[in-house]
Amino acid sequence: MQARPKVQLDFIDALRGIAIIGVLISHAQRNVEIYQAMGHQAQMSPWLSRYAVQGARGVQLFFVVSALTLFLSAGKRASERNEWLNFYLRRFFRIAPMFYLAFGVYCVAPALLKGQAFPPLGTVLGTLSFTNGWSPSWLLGANDVVPGGWSIGVEMSFYIVFPLVFLALKDFPRALTALMLCLVLAVGGWPLLIQHPPIGDADLWERFVFVWLPNQLPIFLFGICAYFVMFGQAGRLTTFFRQAGRGLNACLFILAVAVLLVAPQWLDDPRAVFLYGGAFALLALCLYWRPYRWLVNRPLQHIGKISFSGYLTHFFMLQVARKLLAKVHAGDHLNPDLYFVATVLLALAGTVLVSSVTYRLVEVPGQALGKRLIEALAVRRKIAATPSY
Question: Residue 388: what pLDDT?
């Protein structure tokens, strides 16, 4: 039986804040170097470009945090009636309202107002039904329906199998065993999968193999292992972290940061993503026991709280930043590095502003609707179970 602890989730929101900032940074880099936002071909400093590209690993940080919080939430609701039906309802109403709004903004509106081509029907239906995670064209084509839709497809795929994962991994030894097994399969199986693509488009297949759930599953398992260590079910390892003083905790934190600083500069292998997963889990452990206030603070926590809206709106705000910079001819006056920094700052400010609104007007009401539906179903079941005389 999983623990049912009461914890402050400030460090969780801070990690989500870091994740969305990282993702925004990676897309800002693409704007400069790939999409020629400056009006001409531009290259940032190589070291800066490599770090910016790996900001995309913010998605993996989201996955680590998601698995950790799902186990925490499921543990609290272990005695709830119809817990898995309620789980799926909560997840759907957590994701769908804002996602469908983004679909209207990014896909429907351009098609109706600008005559933009509509994505293939299969891709649209697979994306909107959150079943796109198991088809190469649907998963990667989801970005044509809603930018960044591929990662939501992976996340929803994990939700589908989550009850089985939760029921199977009752303790830290089982979670660690599952992690090691999945790592061996993912790392060892990568060359075989890449060398024998079952579809004609080898590049599409390689991208799919990287992002699909089986390859990302070890990242989620890092978060699950962190959950067990945090909440006293990993024996000596839990005791070690709990009793670690400030100095040792700081050393472990620096170790995790060192991995994140070294990996982008020295490793050019897709399987390095698992190093990021381990580093993110270690960061979470360190911040749980020692929430450094320079990192776990209100501004970053707020960004983390609105991070799902931020994930969906930051693409639009990057385009706004591009237009604003074009109006002042920034591409003619700034070097690529400074243009990149200006893009990040403008897009981040706009994303926080817009996402704060959509969080309040779309996400919160959506979650409340899901809660009311769960309560209504519970009342209906109670009435149905009441004997009539």
Answer: 61
Q: Tell which phi-psi region holds residue 36, choosing left (phi > 0), alpha (psi between -120 and 50) or beta.
A: left
**Nearest by Cα to 312 from 110, 133, 99, 21:** 99
| Residue 177 CA from chain centroid, whole number | 24
* pLDDT at residue 7 in the model: 52
Q: How far is the C-alpha of 159 from the C-alpha of 171, rounded, in Å?
A: 20
In the chain the first and final C-alpha atoms are separated, in Å, by 39
Angstrom distance (rounded) from CA 78 to CA 387: 27
Q: Which residues contact 184 (CB under 8 A, 6 or more apart)?
A: none
Q: What angle do CA 363, 366, 369 make, to 5 degrees?
A: 155
Tokens of 386: 């009441």
Q: In the structure encoding, which two tokens stand for residue 109, read together?
A: 């509106």
Residues of the chain with pLDDT under 50: 1-6
Q: Both tokens of residue 199?
A: 């579809």
DSSP assignment letter at 105: I
Provide the greatest CA pair distance for the chain: 83
Please give the pLDDT value at position 241.
86
Provide the whole-model pTM.
Answer: 0.94
pLDDT for 78 equals 77
